[in-house]
From TrEMBL:
GO molecular-function term, one example from the UniProt record: K48-linked deubiquitinase activity
One example of a Gene Ontology biological process annotation: protein K48-linked deubiquitination
Name the UniProt record assigns to this protein: DUF544 family protein
PANTHER family: NF-E2 INDUCIBLE PROTEIN, UBIQUITIN CARBOXYL-TERMINAL HYDROLASE
Basic residues biased stretches: 326-335
Domain MINDY deubiquitinase: 24-277
Record region (Disordered): 304-349
């Protein structure tokens, strides 16, 4: 029995465009309310969207799902399809992923990591990043590129950057070896201080991801220290990340995806879209215009109704005056009626 606590996730049902049938089906995904659990949420949601007759995965239809329950469903899935040998170790690794996951990406390959991608491989989910070497973050000269190939991974580049800072701040005279080190690693400053490194995404990286992902494919994207489910729309071939912020859980189908394109490279954010990939801003504007149109129609109807009532009121007043004008002015009772009244008064009961 699982208890609802702060160690649980809000669920949400979305309409998902299945790549094979090109039809929409309902899928229950997980949302998050705080930083930390995004790697395991990305794994779960990717399995949910990739689910088919050959390899099925789904979550219970509940509003909140406990973190331990999520672990159990993943373990059951792994056992059903014999995805690993040590399930106790897998359970331990999954438990830590609710609090984050350390990665060490390569600047030379969007699919290469020094460590941290093991669990994604267990579940057969491709993991990619967009932090790829390009002229955006350093000059393309042979000596720098050779040194970069020796460093390759983010942590080595970051350590080199820290060592350079330390040497440059030393009051003592540097040795020839230290001086040579500084001269050969000047490009590291440009890499580590560049905004593209801070978000782990370059235009070259984005283009490589577009080349790599097939239409309808689901992968997990690592960017800006965040893991998200990335989907290639089989109809438009555009890339979208699944919106998992629990704040959008009550928006229905209006906010389900976020575009992943050049705008993300330049600004860090994409455009929010509905379940059928229509920009949410466009939907909002259409609803606003529809609301304004209805308000105008209601106002027009109210004016016509008021005008009609005014005409009826004036017509009634005119009719009343005409009847008064033609009413006989002789208030005397007709003689025949007087005789009848007198006759009635003579009857003895």
């Amino acid at each position: 029995m699982y208890e609802h606590s702060h160690n649980s996730y809000r669920s949400r049902i979305i309409s998902y465009l299945e790549p094979s049938s090109r039809k929409y089906s309902k899928r229950l995904i997980l949302c998050q309310t705080e930083n930390g659990p995004c790697p395991i949420i990305a794994i779960v949601n990717s399995l949910v969207l990739k689910s088919n007759n050959e390899r099925s995965f789904s979550l219970p239809n509940k509003r909140h799902i406990a973190s331990e329950e999520v672990n159990d469903y993943l373990i059951q899935f792994a056992k059903r399809y014999a995805l690993c040998e040590d399930y106790d170790e897998l359970h331990g690794r999954l438990s830590t992923m609710h609090f984050g996951q350390q990665l060490n990406p390569s600047i030379l390959d969007i699919q290469k990591f020094d460590y941290g991608d093991e669990i994604f491989k267990v579940f057969g989910i491709p993991l990619v990043h967009g932090w790829l070497f390009s002229s955006e973050i350093m000059p393309d000269d042979p000596s720098s590129l050779k040194c970069l190939q020796e460093l390759e991974y983010y942590e080595k580049i970051a350590d080199t950057f820290a060592e350079r800072r330390s040497l440059l701040e030393m009051p003592e005279k540097l040795t020839s070896e230290q001086t040579s080190f500084l001269e050969n690693t000047t490009f590291v400053d440009a890499i580590m201080e560049d905004r593209f490194t801070m978000q782990f995404l370059t235009s070259s990286g984005l283009r490589k991801i577009l080349e790599l992902i097939h239409p309808g494919e689901i992968v997990v994207l690592f960017r800006s220290c965040h893991f998200s489910t990335l989907y290639s729309n089989p109809e438009s071939l555009s890339l979208f990340t699944l919106v998992t912020d629990s704040g959008y859980a009550r928006t229905g189908e209006d906010v389900v995806w976020e575009t992943f394109d050049d705008q993300v490279v330049e600004t860090g954010t994409g455009e929010l879209c509905s379940a059928n990939f229509i920009p949410a801003a466009l939907i909002l504007n259409q609803r606003k215009e529809e609301h304004e149109r209805r308000v105008k129609e209601d106002e027009h109807y109210a004016r016509r109704l008021a005008q009609g009532q005014q005409r009826q009121s004036r017509s009634g007043q005119n009719t009343g005056y005409s009847q008064t004008a033609h009413r006989p002015r002789n208030n005397k009772t007709p003689k025949k009626k007087q005789d009848e009244q007198q006759l009635k008064s003579c009857i003895i009961c």
